[in-house]
Structure formats: structure tokens, C-alpha cells
Amino acid sequence: MTDALLETRALRKAFGALIATDTVDFDVRAGETHAVIGPNGAGKTTFIKQLSGELRPDSGQVRFAGEDITNLPSQRRSREGLARSFQITSVYRDFSALDNVALAVQAHAGHSFRFWRPAREDISLTRPAMQVLEKVGLGKRTAILAANLAHGEQRQLEIAMALATQPRLLLLDEPVAGMGTDESKRMIELLATLKGEKTIVLVEHDMDAVFTLADRISVLVYGRIIATGTPVEIRANQEVRAAYLGEDL
Amino acid sequence: MVAILLLLAAVPPVAALLHEPFYLDLLRRVMIFAIAAISLNLILGYGGMVSFGHAAYLGIGAYAVGVLSHHGIDNGWLQWGIAIGASALVAAAIGSISVRTSGIYFIMITLAFTQMLYYLGVSIAKYGGDDGMRLNVRSQFSGLIDLNDPAEFYYLVFAILSLFLYLSHRLVNSRFGLVLQATRLNEARTRAIGLSPYPYRLAAFVISGAMCGLAGALLANQTSFLTPEFMNWTRSGELMFMVILGGIATTAGPLLGAAGLLLLEDVLQGWSVLPKWVHEHWQLYLGVILVLVVLYAKRGLAGLLPGNERDD
Q1: Which residues of A touch B190 (CB under 8 A)?
Q2: Are residues A127 and A52 located together in one domain of the fold?
Q3: Subunit contact A112:B195, Cβ cutoff 8 A
Q4: In chain B, which residues have pLDDT < 50?
Q5: Is B281 helix (H, G, I), strand (E, B) or coil?
Q6: CA–CA min distance A210, chain B (Å)
Q7: Domain identity same for A112 and A36
Q8: Predicted TM-score (pTM) of this structure
Q9: How many CB atoms lie within 10 A of CB A212?
């Protein structure tokens, strides 16, 4: 698999007797949007945490751009170009939207042992941050404290922070979770603009989002990937239908 | 903030006019503790590291002056330089272990190290052990500043306080300061955008220890006396209280907190207009006032200031 940007080989993670990730082989091609779906408790979050570096697998390998990154902590993976958004919104609530994104820019602009110049007046940080905020549709909300943004806007802010690190791959953990219809429609539109531009791994419950955005879908059930294919193939797959017990795919 | 500093600058001539040199002494003490509280606010307020052992650096700074003086070295440049350097070194050693932990573990580790230093002070009979020792001569600055002159000493402490207020203001708004605050606000997010918290937190811990070491050197000169009590855990608690009372993660907070706590102590203990039952149980009334401030002024005394700027 020469064109895989991110791949796992025989990835395994157990919590006691529960095997949350069971010998998973998974690959994401450069440029594609690859969705990971599965019923509740299928081990999606455990899986994505092993991709992002928050959890170490018991065995197996995670490779990114040909490098073995299995043992790299998340901050190193971020520097290698792997950015992630969290299932439960994770922003700096006491910082403004601009501060949040500027900090993500700063994190990839060399070390931060700079003690004197005010970072908020540094246009080499704020200008790219403003551009990313414009891109995700928060251009008019830059000065608002993240805590005071609407839920949907906070999710957009997360995407902005991920983009600000200029990643080669975006790991999005349920980006439309908890959103109203309008909000989730806007988020799907935003992600559609990123599609093709970025390689994306999308873990999502929302089937609208998945079938609108994904080039390929992998289905995770009880820690195993039971099928990988195009949306059309996945829709027709009997095993997948059984796993979802008649839920509308 | 500027208004407070102008008031402080006006104290020596006013005190001289009123023939009340005592106030000079009291406010110098307030400012020295404010410097220590500024250093603690850096890691506790901005960095979210609840150091319950910050008095260690007061002690190290004080002992640097006391021990050198004991051996006949009265040069202030050397004494204070060693006070800062030794505090930075000890902070680096304690920090390299404690900064990896957080929450209750961080509190316990910093407390444990400080108690070790406290008992070290108690056990060294040569430097007075339990009783501590007198400082025979205050630090000498080659005739440049005379610390025996109350007003000169006062203005030196005032200058250092002003400098540290400015330095900490610059620091918390720099790239370094924003990363430090980010590690407090959301560590997982900070890692996810590609930053390792450890080196930044450790650096802040060392800077804070070094600043507090200088406060210790000042304190030894202020009291002309030093004991292991400087490092007692209750002293660490007082410093923490100043930071919280003044308003955590604010520029003016540590100064307001130090002033609030020490002046209240003085008023409740000493003012003759208050009834005797207040003097006798002053700690009780102090406690009540402090609880009320913490409950009703969420951002401490700094939150009550007009304008009440906040740096983060």
C-alpha cells in the first residue's frame, strides 16, 4: 500500500477482558476522506486515540507517511502533521477565538521560549490565525471568548485550530456531535470545502455527514473492522446492515 | 495599578512628616511579600501549578544572605546573586520531579521538598538551628545604597517590586506566557496542537523560584534575622493566600493580596481603637474576613478595582 498516508497494522488494544481494538488493519490514502463508523461502544474513540497518540496500543503498528509513529506522544504526532479535533469540544475557553487559533499557529512556529514580545501583537501569528478563522466562518467572531461562542461555533473553532497547524491529515472525532440541524448542515458544508484539500479521517455517527463527505468508509464493530469500501458498497453490505440492526443507512 | 504604585512611592516622605517610621517598615514588608507573591502567582495563577512549598525559596534566599554574612561576606551583589542562583537551582531540582505531576501530587511533592529544607535548617546548629541567626550587617552595595537607611531600603524594594510587576506582565503575555496559560487551561488540547507542556512549566517553575529567592534575600535584610520558620509550610500557605486573596492570575493581585493580608493582621492586632476581644482573638476575625473575600469577590481584591484589567 504505497499511497497510504496513515496506516495501522494488526493494531490491538484491550482494557482487561474487553478487546476495544482487535487486530485492526486500516489505511487512509493521501487526499481521501475516510470515515470510520460503527455502533455505540464499537471502539471508535479508542481507535482514534491510538491514531492521535493519546493511547498506546498493546501491539501492532501505526505508520504515518511511511514512518512508524506507534510510540510517539500526541504533541510529536501533531508536529509531524497529524491534527485532531475532539469528540467533546476542547478549546481554551478563557482565551478569545483568535488566541485559540494563534496559539495553534505558534505551536508550529518554532519554540516558544520567547519571554518579551507580546504574542498577541505578533502579526506572524495573528495574520495566519485570522485567515483560518475566515475560512471556517468565524471571521467576525475573533475577539469573542471561546466560552461565549455557540456550541456549533466552538466546533468550528476546533477545526480552525487543527487547520492552523497546517496538518497533512485531519483526525475529526464526531465533528457534528450534539449539533442542531442548521449547525450540522453548516459544519458539513465547511468540511466539504476541506475535502480533497486535506486528507481526512472522519469518525462520525451522523450518517448524513458520512455519506455526504466520505470517499471510503470503514465499519468498526466490537473492535474489528468488518468492512471497508465506497459509500455504495457499504450501503449494500449485508454484514454492515446486520450490525446496525436495520438502522437506515 | 499605577495609582497604587504612586501611593507607595509617596509613603517615605509622608511617614517622615508624620514621624511614623513604623509605616515605612510595615509597607516595606508588604512589598517584599508582594514580590514573593508575584513569583508564586506566575506558576499558581498563570501556570495552574499549586505549589505548596514556595516558602522554600524565601528560606534559601534568606539563608544565602545569612550564611555568607556569617562567614564575613557582606557583599550584597554576591549575596543576592547567590540567593537567586541557589533558588533557581533548587527550583530546577524540585521542578524536574514535581512538574511531571499535577493536582494533589504536585501539592504534596512541593510540600515534602520544602519540609525537607525546613528540617535541614532546623538541624544545622552552626547556623542557629531552630533558633535561627541574627544578621550582624545588612547586605553592602559598595556604598551605592545603604540598607540601614530606611527610606533608601524602601525605595530599593519599591524599584524591585515595580520591575517584577512589569516583568511578569511582559512574561505572561509573551509567547512563553501564552503557552504556560494554555497548559493550565487545557493540557490535552495543548498537546494536540503540538506543544509539550513539560519544558515550559519547568522553566516557569525555575523563574518563579529565582524571583522568590530575591524576596528571601530582601526579607533577611528587612528583619535582620532569619530562622527555619521562613520555610515553614504555614508560610507557604500565607503566600498562597495572598495570591488568592489578591486575585489569581492578575497583575495587581499579588500586591493587593500581600497588602490586604499583612495590613489586616496589623490592624486587628495593633489598633487601639478596636476592643480588646478583637486583639485577643485576631486570627479568628482575620479568618472570617478572608473567607468572606474569597466567597464574595470571585476574582479577589483585583476584581474590585475599577477597570480591573486581566492578563490572559
Answers
A1: 75
A2: no
A3: yes
A4: 309-312
A5: coil
A6: 24
A7: no
A8: 0.91
A9: 17
